[in-house]
Design goal:
64% helix; mainly alpha; single chain; 8 helices
């Protein structure tokens, strides 16, 4: 079990969260998803989400993970997350995420997000 978490402690969480905040408006634009819709999907209050996205409020790790998993469960979002390195291998191992697994078919997947 310890091997699975060895790289997790070395992650620069602040850097990952900062990068996600910087990339989020462009990611949403690519996915054609409004800030309100993304907030709903992640469970983050809509006003807080907008403050986070504009850099007026810092992102909590739990919020980072919520956004990450919403993106990860969308084929296009997953490609973006992978290409931008927002879900490092150490975090995938710690979360036991299979990078080759396919996103489950959800109601949002039926409509492209």
């Amino acid at each position: 079990m310890e091997d699975e978490f060895a790289g997790l402690n070395a992650l620069d969480r602040d850097l990952l969260m900062s990068r996600l905040i910087d990339e989020l408006p462009g990611i949403r634009e690519t996915l054609k998803v409004s800030a309100d819709a993304m907030a709903d999907k992640t469970g983050i209050d809509k006003e807080l989400f907008k403050l986070i996205e504009t850099g007026k409020r810092s992102l909590k790790w739990s919020e980072f993970m919520s956004i990450l998993f919403v993106l990860w469960n969308n084929d296009i979002g997953r490609g973006i997350v992978e290409a931008k390195g927002l879900f490092p291998e150490a975090l995938k191992r710690a979360m036991s995420v299979n990078r080759n697994a396919h996103a489950p078919v959800t109601e949002s997947a039926k409509y492209g997000f």
